[in-house]
Amino acid sequence: MNEADQARFSNLHQWAENHGANLHPSLEIYKDDITGYSLRVQPSANEGLAPGFCAVGCHVAITLSYINALIDSPINTSATNQEQDPAFPPRFMSSAPPHVIGRFFLIKEYLKGKDSYWWPYISTLPQPDHIDTWALPAVWPEDDIECLEETNAHVAVREIQINIKKEYKHARKVFKEEDFPCWQEYTQLLYKWAFCIFTSRSFRPSLILSQETQDYILTLTPPGTKIDDFSILQPLLDIANHNLTSKYQWNLETSGTCQLICNDSYQPGEQIYNNYGLKSNSELLLGYGFVLPTTDTLHNDYVHVKSRRPPCTLHTKDPQDFLISLRPFSHPSSVAGRSRVFSHQDVRLNSLPGLSRIEPGLIRDLASVVAISPDELIALQHWVQETEEMIPTEVNDLLERIQRTLGAKVQFDYQRFQSIEIESADNENQELAVRYRNQYEATLEATMDELSKALVPNHLEKLVKGEQ
């Protein structure tokens, strides 16, 4: 890092530790060529770190979220009564969702500059005027967004854009009508920046706050507020980057502090990682602005498919979408996919011809839609519960309908995908979009190939029997 960066992150480290945070003495903040600002074991360390070490801890006193907007100050869990005037007009506080209020609070503190309690943290964030350092696909220029057309990411981007526009328009209207001080300074650019910062760096409170801290925080919120109605920024801790296979856990036993415990070993000079969860490349692209490359030992390439069941038949907890995988769900490299294979019955569904790349939940979902009679569903359920390899006739007929429905869906999506021609990638956003497209395309092609190989023998057999 250059001297200016060294000074900023040194200031962050000192400020955080002064307020109860901690960084393992063998770790340091550095700038990686690929992942940017990161954490690593100091190259000069005498030895590596064994599994089970506390990499970094963040005290609730330095977190930034909707809760701080309610009290317009840091959280003090030892205070018997922390009721204060909120950061924004009551009308805004009562009409905007918690996650939106949290973003505007980040803007408010940014506008304070060095007068903000959180300035040591905010000064190390990607700054609003350097858009290329923080812009997620939802706020890319239109030419860059077009490179995502006919993919899962493009559909999601359009939905997010509508929400951002609506949220900002409402806030500006209230600020203006309430004559909120300096309301003109809360620009759309700053709201997009705050959206991207929270989206890419924040954490769910239920995961990183002890039950005692959660209970205290909820005493500050309006009635009916749920602990995960908003997310929380954790200074210092959020520098740790993502690795899909990293083993970690949260330690919430230290009063008011969330500690990242790394359960992998690291040698001097090696970057240490958090794990953001089993997210597909589509989710990583939208939420963090990167995708994982495909290797022989790990892939993260999945196409999201929405449930085909009528909305009126779906319950609140039913999955709304399912995954189609580049490689079979049973393949060791399908780490995120295998997390959705829960049982022996799921494994049996993936063993059906043509369906090894299809999430078991989607197979069940389609079966319920294309089944001609309840007997077919009963026969399928009976087969997946047994060990018999032979597929009964009624299950085979249902299977063929599932295969054909999937084949038609994937082929239709592939043809629409192929209709978009990207002549060249003119910037980093477009280069990222093209990498994502290439891996997305490979997933569709592999799935079509497997389904066609399963359908052709079945089709030929029926021709021989004179059934078609």
UniProtKB/TrEMBL annotation:
Name of the protein described by the UniProt record: SET domain-containing protein
One cellular component (GO) term of this entry: nucleus
A GO MF term: protein-lysine N-methyltransferase activity
Entry's transmembrane regions: none
Signal sequence range: none
Superkingdom as given in the UniProt entry: Eukaryota
Alphabetized InterPro entries for the sequence: Set10/Efm1_SET (IPR044432), SET_dom_sf (IPR046341), SETD3_SETD6_MTase (IPR050600)
